[in-house]
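Appendix C. Worked example: Glutamate-rich WD repeat-containing protein 1
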Amino acid sequence: MLRSIPHARMRNPAQFLPHPFHARRDEMASPSGDSCGTLSDSEEMGYEEDIEGKLESSCDSRQVYLPGQDECQPEEMDHESSAYHMLHTAQSGAPCLSFDIIRDSLGDGRTSFPLTCYVMGGTQAQPGRQNFIVLMKLYNLVRTLVEDGEDDDEDDGEEGPQMESVMIQHTGAVNRLRVAEGVQRNLVATWSEQGTVSVWDTSRHVILLDSPSVGGAEASAACLRGHQEDPLYAFSGHQTEGYGLAWSPTFPGRLATGDCTKNIYIWEPKEEGVWQVGPNPLVGHTNSVEDIQWSPNEPSVLATCSVDQTVRIWDCRAKAEKACMLTTNAHNTDVNVISWNHSEPLLVSGADDGSLKIWDLRQFGKGEASAEFQYHSGPVTSVEWAWHDSTVFASSGADHQVMCENRVKMWFRQCVYWYTAGGAVGLGSGEGRRK
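Step 2, the predicted output written as structure tokens:
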């Protein structure tokens, strides 16, 4: 269970950061927390020659470098640009515990550059500072991979990646944020650290990302700097904060919320802008509900994970005390995150001990995972199946790693999302960065 991230002051969110990035030795300690020390000039030269020699002798058998697992970390690291067709970094301005992709009408599976995507995040500002829901449009995302024979300076005259942002004031830090699927309006649900779940209609704000002058200059300026407005609907029946939050992908407007005291509520959409929240929470978990996932096929079936180390499958058509249909003791530590495969009956779970497990839901009652991985040396903070390939998932951890098809990327990630545009993946960090 890992929830807080370092605070940073809110800056102008419309900002792209340059590449390559560097990881300094004094920021990279060994797993025990001890520094590896410094190298003398002669030692450093020998170290570099040794590394270069190994690379030259094994250029056809490169190995994945895993940060934190070597006795000594290198003083400086550059990202491997040849691993990415496109890599850009943007600054949202403040740490975000959660972000989500805003669905657009530009088409799925698009791969032609430059690309455009829409992202929404919720801030965790310093105590006493205003928090925001931040809507971002990232566009003119040009291809960064330079193939053999290409001139990396040939596009220097073209405009670089751009970012537009619109902000909405939010009461309390945003523990989790989820964008609704299958609805006509751009609905987003937020979990506040103050114990309230709110639903917002961000349709006008998304339009402002494309047309900043819509509604007049004064209204546009208010949205850009983060104005105050009321949510479409709010529920404070949990009486404590929480992190479990998920919209149903097959039943538009249906929402599930889970809190830190084990309670799970199902929201049913009624007339426009109104929800009926179940009078009784689903009964089963004995500790904090950390994540919720709806079935991609069954509108009444959902999965949850908890600090009680279990993963449970529910049918919300049943009475609250009988809704839990299947339970497995999934991990030996807190289960932080889960993700339901979009096309196969598979569920992946990630825990506090860094372990990842894949569950075949046809064999779920037996309590045996189909596969187990120990990629991370710290708590798993997010996991997500790829939309374009049912055999691939990405995970992030508190060990400064994102794992995806044996590719490793550094910096402290809080959440990871696959974008429906081809094989793009979005990463969120505790530094307010987006990639």
